[in-house]
Known about the structure:
Elements: H1 3-22, E1 31-34, E2 43-46, H2 48-56, H3 74-77, H4 89-103, H5 124-142, H6 144-147, H7 154-158, H8 204-209, H9 231-248, H10 269-289, H11 312-316
Antiparallel strand pairs: 1-2
Helix pairs in contact: 5-10
Amino acid sequence: MNSKFKVSRFVPALSLLLVVFIAGCERPPMDSVQQGFRGTGMVAVSNPRLAAELMAGVSVPDPIPAVPPSGTTASEVYENVQVLGALDVSEFNRFMTAITQWVSPDEGCNYCHAATGFASDDLYTKVVARRMIEMTRQINSDWTDHVGTTGVTCYTCHEGNNAPLNVWVQNPGPRRAGGFTADSAGQNTVAPEAALSSLPYDPFSPFLLGDTEIRVLASQPLPQGAPVPAIKQTEETYALMMHMSDSLGVNCTFCHNSRAFSNWQESSPARVTAWHGIRMARELNTSYVAPLSTTLPAARLGPMGDAPKVNCATCHQGLNKPLMGANMLQYHPALVGGD
């Protein structure tokens, strides 16, 4: 057998191996934007093809035209208006029309309101909607360090769906046999929450429900009394950071200086915004969403009986700015502040 024939036999096999090895790589050209001092590695890298796909799926409904005030409040006209009761009834009706468009375009008003009358709280969806309006108003009032003046509306998360597509529930993990493999410490299972890595598959419970500190390195050496972050805490931190990167469609250097990840002085302003965002999500989950586990039907709860909660992907959905920065709040100032 000559050498030429031998080589030709292996060309298909080598080609197949090459395809397998580069399958996880992204095809150039990539876009990069320098957002820090030269030599610091602060470069944002993006894939224009993926960005185009995400932007193609973004649609922002046209605002409903404003209506002249009637001079009468909603609570004077309707019964059991516990939120937005001080709003002019004309604006109140306009806002209800917008919510229908944002959350239940197919079902209409009957998704939240019972056939027995609009004042009835018989449907759990109305009780949940009322609480979500209160939550949205708090976000736009108290969390401007994260949402700025752009703010959020119901459409930011729902985008025409009854429930947001990107939520999370506590993950009990896979069932395991006894012995040394019975407890996996919540990791070593491929999960999208950890970017398909072997990192902990529930990075949300410690940070977006609990108040575990996000740490990778100890703040001072032993034995000066400072607790050293456990390896598991470090891995949970990495899992959360990977979730944030995927949720915003950015790489680590969007917030961090890659030569000194922990240094705030050498980080970008986006890191401060993210810091507030983590704490905002935690408060929303503990104060508004998690308590709804007693209101939602069993079919809407997770396997451990908890309500679906928010994380970075709930609003961002793969984009640096939700809805590409579209400001819908300007057309609905009722979603700022309280009664």
